[in-house]
Fold this sequence. Notes:
The structure holds 3 protein chains of 3 kinds. Chain A is an alpha/beta fold. Chain A folds into 2 domains: 18-109, Elongation Factor Tu (Ef-tu), domain 3, CATH 2.40.30; 115-281, Nucleotide-binding domain of ferredoxin-NADP reductase (FNR) module (Rossmann fold, 3-Layer(aba) Sandwich), CATH 3.40.50.80. Helices cover 21% and strands 31% of the residues of chain A. Chain A is globular. Chain B is built from 10 helices and 12 strands. Chain B has helices spanning 9-17, 99-112, 123-130, 179-185, 211-217, 222-228, 237-241, 287-306, 316-319, 327-336, and strands at 2-5, 21-27, 35-39, 64-75, 78-88, 92-97, 132-137, 163-168, 171-176, 190-192, 248-254, 259-266. In chain B, the strands form 2 sheets. Chain B has an 8-stranded mixed beta sheet with strand order 3-2-6-7-8-9-1-10. The model of chain B has no long low-confidence stretch (mean pLDDT 92). By secondary structure, chain C is α/β, with parallel strands linked by helices. Chain C folds into 2 domains: 1-167, no CATH class; 171-308, no CATH class. Chain C has 12 helices and 8 strands. Classes of the chains: A alpha/beta, B alpha+beta, C alpha/beta. The interface between A and B is large, with 53 and 59 residues. β1 (3-6) of chain A pairs antiparallel with β5 of chain B, so a sheet runs across the interface.
Amino acid sequence: MNTVPRKGTKAKEPFVPELARLIDVIEETPGVRSFRVVFEDVAVMSAFSFAPGQIGLMGIPGVGESTFAISSPPSRRDYIQFSVMKTGFVTSAIHELEAGDAVAVRAPLGCGFPVDSWKGKNILIAGGGIGMAPLRSLLLHLLDRRDEFGGIRVFYGARTPADLCFAGDRAEWERRQDIDFIATVDRRQPGWSGRTGVVPDVLESERPPAQDTVAVACGPPVMIRYTLAALKRLGFSEDRVYTTLERKMKCGIGLCGRCNVGSKYVCTDGPVFSLADLGNEI
Amino acid sequence: MRFLREENIPLLLHRLSESATVWAPQVVRDTVNTVLFSPWLEGAEVETGLYSMLSAKELVLPATERLFSYRYSQAGGREKIEINADAPQEQAAIFAARACDAKGLAVMDALFLDRSGASYNDGQYRARRSGLTVITLACTTCDSACFCSSFEKGAAETAGSDIILYPATGGYLAEAVSKRGEELAALDLFRDSSLEKPELARTAKVELAGLGQRLFDIYDDLDFWRRTAEGCLSCGYCSYACPACHCFNIFDEAESDRTGGRFRCWDACMFYAYTQESSGNNPRPEPAHRYRNRLAHKFSYYPLNRGEILCTGCGRCIRGCPAGLDLRDAIRAVRAR
Amino acid sequence: MEDLISAIKKVLEQVDVVLGWARSEAAGVAAPAFFHTPAEAEGAIFDSTCVHNLAVHLPRLADKKAGIVAKGCDARSIAQLIAEGIIKRERVTVIGVACPGVIDVKKAWRCFGFGKRVSDSGGQVAMEGKTVKREEILLRKCRGCREAGPVIRDVTVGEVGKAPAAPADPAGIRKRFAAMSFAERRQFWQDQFSRCIRCYACREACPLCFCRDVCTMQAHEPGWSGGATNSSQSWMAQLVRISHMAGRCTGCEECERACPVGIPLMLLLEEQNAVVEELFGYRAGSGTEAKTPFLTFDVNNDSWEQER
């Protein structure tokens, strides 16, 4: 290697992560944990700001890094939360971590939801499984600014009750009078008194009006596909439907090439897209 | 214009090698005609009659490079990570790059050194690029895989070069096209000349006009893409040989329990693993999806996003394809569709 | 060529696609071609530039019925693929061709320049007035050819029956390699693999390599071999691949031909093939019913010798 280490540099290279530490690990479901991280550098922490929907790469030097949606709202100034599903090599290693462990983070990256342009509109949120992570950030942000928006309806589905994330938040969302929150699971289960059926079906049976409404959908690829189709049938126009996409990412800055959907890069142009942005390429 | 006598070439290489690693096309020992750009050592023969199998891009984007090293330590009873970014400091010169190689560097410069973007400006790339002198050998002949004449300037392209050598009787006419090139041309190895530039090679052409839109139009025609890509073996040669392909992978490698580094290495969009997600989902599962993306990235997405075609017509992907595929056939097929 | 074209057309009546060769305008030599229609088959050729082993495509056409034009060496790969159960005998129709030996196209280009249309008749390879004796630029595998004809074939084009006569290999690198000490060999391979760029053309061009997308050389899990192009790792990764080829490699030389940086992979494979033949009396691709030593294990009888 014809390179020499540059000691103690503060000049930020795009691939050099910020050092951070876990202050809390929350078990959301058997396969999903939320990790609350704080940057070691106080100045970095206090300057950190982002928009809901933006992403970050969290990793363990020696293992690797992976891309996650930020699931905490921008109003949280004391930590950033990533909700991580254990699926592969890096996420399995992250799941081994405990509060107090060191991690390395590159965030925020990509584009978030254009919330400011939604002022005065009704908002419909449809989340599936771990896809609720960026939507949690969005929803908490909307609730922080509750009086700027019209009605807020949330559909959140998972395979089984045990697969629904954010139990504490859900109790709060169900209690609140100023939003309409519906949790659903794929099939009837003992001990589950809520709705059953997959999100697209529940959505269509509820027939939420499309007028003056922005819809946001995030979840596994199959759920997204059917939810977007359902929204189309309900009369939502393509520029009023947003989704956040997930692709394998490495660089996070539009260089390494793999995360493109057509001419758009999920890491820089996304992960938030309106259906109008995506055209036929989803 | 300046003139460099043939016998002064070794002297020039020697002079350059005093302050930089000089890379030149050379036939690899024990091979029939495998030409690669490799570090030139005193007395080594430079091969200018055959094209190198790989472009000059490894000088700015090495096949593998460390981005940073890390070290774990205990501090105050807690684990602490220390990260040190690598800063390449190598000075290098490339001799007898071709106009298509140099243009590839210019295309990548626009991406890796872009200061308009939020977080681009890749430090590793910048360091290597600023330490690189590009001495281009203009082509007066070509072979049937070459197709640089499909682009505006063809073999007369100067982007990415510092100095261009034009073959002439008894030596080379030298034209500096950058400040660094001017410094080089001012060396006493060169003398003034009033000779005319020779006529440059005119290669085969493939029509590129409207190709970007056409690629969008037939995006969904998967049967077409399956036919177009059916001979493709999904190896990474074309991407690795290409002067404009720049996709990479990032991964960590531990040296010990506590130390190691994060590396960047070439990656290729024709690999299945390139887009495979750990959930098992792969948005480009078939060679057809990958071939479509490869072509569209070069001739549609990148021109749309950045105004440049990610191809310089060097022909390497044609000359070296183990499956005998010709990119130009695919382009023609797209246009005819 | 007429015989070949009509054979392909005939086979096309029974199958979805026939793998063969057509002339590449750019390269002036043969390139693999997929014939779907009789009209396409008009472009079929067979000459000494038909170097590619088209059997590599058969496992990728799993759901289709395919015809394939095969030289003796290619047929060995097809037989081995069938013996291992990777492809089904009834899904492939083999058009065996009489092969005069194929040329090292890189050597031809060295003589003539890339893309010059090469013609080959009467043992002379020619282009634009220049000629070379074919035997001087034969691929190495053809020099030791033992194929009296394609071992598996449903249709035959041309006169098969004896292996092409070719002079012995002029040795060169192999002779030098044989004389090296182990330390020198180690250095030799370190040097060779320092050029490896991990394009995996060797793997993708190999008809018998079947892990492909989940190959240990590349899969990020378990991450046994990173993507770093460092000589030791690339060498190790290749040795893993090659050891998986024990008793399976038919010596078609495609990995070495595909290698863009000229690593002499066949040095390793030939050595291994010779060991397998000596120990087990087995040459990969001998027949569709052949039992491959390393794919044959009987818990009650772990001796290959007794199995035979």
